């Protein structure tokens, strides 16, 4: 993936505008940097938090949660919105346990419900609808996730999708990998479905932000 798509100068500038974070959250950012773990980072995390606050989200479902960095931003928003639940889903038990420790240390453990398994299947099995859904699973799975997300997001709800630029791979005509094709197809589907008002926001690797009419 190209580092040049969004310049380091812009990326660092956007991250620098994010207010100071708790030490635990900064430690999670440092772990990602040192270990090459793909988290959304400060600017996207703050944007997700802002969105959740703006729509007063109380019930959030995350697909592909890792060790809980993005979860922490959503959980903070839900706490400030008066309480509710953020569903953390990852298929790796070790990551789920790690997330539980981080969220507890941040004082957000009560807000989060943990599921170990395939994220789209977990969402399909959840009762009720959500105010906000965040999608960050393996990219080849994006197209099949969309109908389930559409069903499980309430009217007036917001969908946020990470990696919509995929480091610029989507522009490379010779790239037919399942992940790149998955993002292209997902983008085609969501932008051609009148149910959605959708914009690609070019922060970090591109966040898709879609409002369900
Ligand atoms: C990009 S990382 C998530 C980072 C997290 N959203 C953050 O920003 O802190 C995606 C995580 O979800 C897991 N994952 C990917 N596809 C999944 C799926 N379909 N079901 C469950 N977990 C999945 C990956 O193994 C990885 O741990």
Description:
The protein is an alpha/beta fold and 213 residues long. The chain has one domain: 3-Layer(aba) Sandwich (Rossmann fold), CATH 3.40.50.150. It contains 8 helices and 7 strands, in the order αααβαβαβαβαβαββ. It has a 7-stranded mixed sheet with strand order 3-2-1-4-5-7-6, sandwiched between helices. α7 links the parallel β4 and β5. The radius of gyration is 16 Å and the shape is globular. 41% of the residues are buried. The chain binds S-adenosylmethionine. The site of S-adenosylmethionine (SAM) has 20 residues, from α4, β2 and α6.
What would you call the quaternary organization?
single chain
Number of DSSP helices? 8
| CATH domain topology | Rossmann fold
Ends apart, CA distance between termini = 34 Å
